[in-house]
Amino acid sequence: MTMTPQGLPVAAMLINGRLVPALSGETSISINPADGIPLAAIPYGDDRDAKLAVDAAAAAFPAWASLSAAVRAKYLHRVADILEHRRDEVALVVTNEEGKPLREAQGELQLSVDSLRWFAEEARRAYGSWIPDPVPGRRLLTQRMPVGVCGAIIPWNVPCAMIFRKAAPALAAGCTMVLKPAEATSLVALKVAELFVEAALPDGVINFVTGKASAIGNVLLTDPRVRKISFTGSTEVGRLLMRGAADQIKRTSMELGGNAPVILFEDCNLDAAMAAVAALKFLNAGQACIGANRIYVQSSIYDEVARRLTEHAGRMKVGYGAEPGVVMGPLVDMNAVEKVEELVANAIQKGAKLRVGGSRMQGEAYEKGSFYAPTVLTEVPQTARMHDEEIFGPVAALYRFETEDEVVELANNVPYGLSAYLFTENMDRAIRVAERLETGMVGINETRLGAAEAPFGGVKMSGIGREGGREGLEEYLETKLMAIRVRG
Ligand code: NAP
């Protein structure tokens, strides 16, 4: 591997089967958010690099699309084998660059492998159909065709699995791809790119371009050979990309921001509910699109829930994610810390009560990292900004409610609709409430939603389309109708 004069490894983009620097020769520096130490130099690509990547993906498409699904599956299983073999190495890069504890990074790796294997097999079942035809002498047939060259843009908070949630169904379906990772976690993506090279996929089937987001995004939006944009990230950028995609009527899949309500009814199993809610809230230091943003607690159990959550947050071990016993790492960068500080200050100013945390982590071990303490706020008013915005940090915000109707209305009263969770031992209530919640996913006495087999995605301003499951493959397929004249 090449090194900078300062001894920093230089990572490479993957374009047309080759690991390359940016044409400009420029680089940015990837850093570890736990200690601020530089990890690697990352190519800072722009529109010219993106254009080469689209050229490569477009050139590779016809041959890749015409392979049988079974042959494409073999390639994907080969990538999965390599990823499984290098699991610890890649998980450590995820922890070092994104900050999440190693155990969470390992979970991400498992979801990556599962996605590769599941979509490899599912694409073999992309059946068309014969349609009973009302017209004599004609037959109607549908066939599932790959969409074409796809542009994928992903965020930093799930930097490895997000690659495979998009690339596995796309490649399995016969599409080719140009992928742009988030700047903050480009090293993870370029590590993954090396695995694709090792798996010897045909040149150009998948390309990784790092660097200037707007320039790379613009090529993906304006080049007519790119037929689909698959984006995961903020609603703000998603909206921008949808507008751009409209010019050429490109297909889009949008996995956008969430603002999940968690509802604790007084008849829940409190021990089980508290364990699940605490795990969800502090997952990835609160930086999860499906994270617990608004925790609604029925009045009669409110004080007990607040006490238990406060106690839990107070004893969490926070630090560098690869250190034994650490259950929560740093936020992705200091901008994220400042945003959380703002939201907490705003809530307190509006009347919320601080129970624990509420500041950056103190002490020498935290000085160079972007750490924020696990925090619990009670009596948060609905006028607080954190009620309407994604907190994206380790802050549990507790709201009080009295009745089922009231809490359903409160839960639905935001423009987002990704996930929601409810805890109750009354199954009638569980079904009733789950059906009324305006979200793409609902956890009932359960907060773990993801699986390669399951459709993941939101409604309202949380997005369009699904990732995972049979629906995840559909995102990369078109239906072609053939009308056939049959003589005699
Ligand atoms: P973001 O700011 O929207 O960035 C996401 C990606 O878009 C990054 O790769 C970013 O590149 C790129 N980007 C930014 N501006 C662009 C432009 N003008 N043209 C093309 N690309 C552009 O989001 P984030 O802060 O990374 O991620 C957090 C958000 O993602 C949260 O809102 C979270 O809820 C959401 N998310 C949703 C899901 C889901 O499945 N619904 C899953 C995970 C995360 P740079 O990094 O280079 O700026």
Description:
The protein folds into 2 domains: 13-256 and 462-481, Aldehyde Dehydrogenase, Chain A, domain 1 (3-Layer(aba) Sandwich), CATH 3.40.605.10; 260-451, Aldehyde Dehydrogenase, Chain A, domain 2. The protein is 39% helix and 22% strand. By secondary structure, the chain is an alpha/beta fold. The strands form 6 sheets. It has a 7-stranded mixed beta sheet, with helices on both faces. The radius of gyration is 23 Å and the shape is globular. NADP nicotinamide-adenine-dinucleotide phosphate (NAP) binds at residues 153-158, 180-184, 213-214, 217, 232-234, 237, 240, 255-258, 289, 390, 418, 458, 462-463.
Can you summarize this structure?
With 488 residues, the protein is of the alpha/beta class. The protein is built from 15 helices and 22 strands. Helix 1 packs across helix 7.
Q: Mind describing the biggest β-sheet?
A: 7 strands, mixed
Contiguous helical run count: 15
Structural class: alpha/beta
Query: What is the CATH level 1 assignment of the largest domain?
Result: Alpha Beta
Integer tally of domains: 2
CATH topology of the largest domain: Aldehyde Dehydrogenase, Chain A, domain 1
CATH homology superfamily of the largest domain: Aldehyde Dehydrogenase, Chain A, domain 1
Low-confidence stretches: none
Q: How far is the first residue's CA from the last residue's CA?
A: 67 Å
| Rg result | 23 Å
What ligands does this structure carry?
Answer: NADP nicotinamide-adenine-dinucleotide phosphate
Q: Proportion of β residues?
A: 15-25%
Enumerate the strands of the largest sheet in spatial order, edge to edge or round the barrel.
14-15-16-13-12-18-19
- Please identify, by name, the CATH architecture of the largest domain: 3-Layer(aba) Sandwich
What is the helical fraction, as a range of percent? 25-40%
Mean residue pLDDT: 98
